[in-house]
Amino acid sequence: MSETKILIVVDMLNDFLKPDGKLYCGPTAEAIVPGVVELVRKYKDNDDVILFLADAHDEDDLEFKRFPEHCVAGTDGAMVINELSEIVVGYDNHEFIEKKRYSGFFETELEDALFFEDPDLVEVVGICTSICVMDTVGGLANRDLKINLYKDLVADFDPEMHEMALKRMENLYGVNMV
Ligand SMILES: [Zn+2]
Questions:
Q1: What is the pLDDT of residue 1?
Q2: 78 CA distance to ligand 1 centroid (A)?
Q3: How much distance in Å is there from the Cα of 111 to the middle of ligand 1?
Q4: What is the CA(94)–ligand 1 centre distance, in A?
Q5: pTM above the 0.90 mark?
Q6: How far, in Å, is the centroid of ligand 1 from the Cα of 101?
Q7: Is the preceding peptide bond at 71 cis, omega within 30 degrees of 0?
Q8: In angstroms, what is the span from residue 71 Cα to ligand 1's centroid?
Q9: Is the pLDDT of residue 104 over 70?
Q10: What's the 60 CA to ligand 1 centre distance in angstroms?
Q11: Average pLDDT estimate for 28-34
């Protein structure tokens, strides 16, 4: 039997990736878009599952005490960027999973989606490396899943935190850097 793979795409949303977005993460983040597009296409061609995690905050979300307002549920800013969403139009094997906190596991459907697929391997890309990517990868590691992280397809507005997070995920969570 062939290996079951899942791709988790973290927070590739308009507010983070577009220069006019509410919490633009900068050119380093924008630079991963073509690589993520290519990987999502590859998953689709192989009929593998793609899960898009998406920040979807309430208007008065507590997180806005720490960050400027961003990705309010239902707004354009909270949508997955067109470059990615247009690829999966009409493709059954994908899901958009909304989240209100950094971890993709907090009060979301991610756990159910993973249980249903029972993957041999979970691959992760997206932003920001030290925030939602790392917290979600921590949740995957706690569930003893085999994890590949594409180190050139994650990004952070803070380069120091980016490096720290990569190191921590590799050393503490046993993530394979690919
Ligand atoms: Zn947020």
A1: 61
A2: 10
A3: 19
A4: 22
A5: yes
A6: 6
A7: no
A8: 7
A9: yes
A10: 12
A11: 98
- Looking at residue 2, its pLDDT comes to 75
CA of 45 to the centre of ligand 1 (A): 31
What's the order of all strands across the beta sheet hosting 121-127?
94-99, 49-55, 5-10, 121-127, 147-155, 176-177
Q: String of b and e for 147-157 (b: at least 16 CB within 10 Å)?
A: bbbbbebbbbb
Residue 2 Cα to ligand 1 midpoint, Å, equals: 36
Q: How many domains does the chain have?
A: 1
Q: Is the pLDDT of residue 13 over 80?
A: yes
Q: Which domain holds residue 28?
A: 5-177
Residue 74 CA to ligand 1 centre (angstroms): 14
Per-residue pLDDT for 100 more than 80?
A: yes
Domain with residue 135: its CATH number is 3.40.50.850
Mean pLDDT of 26-44: 98
Q: What percent of the chain has pLDDT over 70?
A: 99
DSSP strand E in the chain: where? 5-10, 49-55, 94-99, 121-127, 147-155, 176-177
151-159 average pLDDT score = 97
